[in-house]
Write a structure and sequence with these properties.
By secondary structure, the protein is an alpha+beta fold. It contains 2 helices and 11 strands; from the N terminus they run αββββββαβββββ. The strands form 3 sheets. Strands 2, 3, 5, 6, 9, 10 and 11 form a 7-stranded mixed β-sheet that branches. Strands 1-4 form a two-stranded antiparallel ribbon. Strands 7-8 form a two-stranded antiparallel ribbon. Strand 5 and strand 6 form a beta hairpin.
């Protein structure tokens, strides 16, 4: 059997068992695999407000079109629910999610929104957060609200997990 045929067979076997066979780059140590990871599966909620107006988190963040893979951090819908579905147990951060999304996260820009006036105010689980936005750890049912304001509100805790 020729090397090219052996390589093709190995590639097809990797596809069939759901392994890594994607052209999508690894980002922050997170690969884009053919199947969602099943060892570690948790959910978070992210809401971004631009001067009081909700900015939708797009559906399919972390699911590159035409590649058929899933990053371990991804969305399915535009409701702000982040899915962590990893083949390994580890700590994930909001910064890694934004890197996979391909958007900046800083005190000057949050996703597609550049801060032109006001400042960024962040709440984690309804408590004011004063640290580095990129370092916010993603735990089961972490609720993150980022407000680019004014106006600023004290958001109520997100509870609509719908079984997630």
């Amino acid at each position: 059997m020729g090397n090219w045929l052996r390589g093709l067979i190995v590639f097809m076997m990797v596809l069939l068992v759901g392994g890594r066979a994607s052209a999508a780059p690894t980002i922050d140590g997170i690969s884009c695999d053919r199947m969602e990871g099943s060892a570690f599966h948790i959910h978070q909620h992210l809401a971004i407000f631009d001067h009081g107006k909700l900015v939708r988190i797009p559906n399919d963040v972390g699911r590159p079109p035409f590649d058929g893979c899933f990053y371990w951090l991804h969305t399915h819908t535009d409701d702000g629910i982040i899915h962590v579905e990893s083949p390994t147990f580890r700590t994930f951060t909001l910064g890694a999610f934004f890197d996979i999304w391909g958007q900046p996260l800083s005190d000057k820009q949050v996703g597609p929104i550049k801060i032109s006036r006001g400042k960024v105010r962040t709440y984690v689980d309804s408590e004011l957060y004063m640290g580095n936005l990129r370092a916010i750890e993603l735990f089961q049912h972490t609720d993150i609200v980022i407000e680019l304001g004014p106006p600023y509100t004290h958001p109520k805790l997100f509870t609509d997990w719908n079984g997630n």
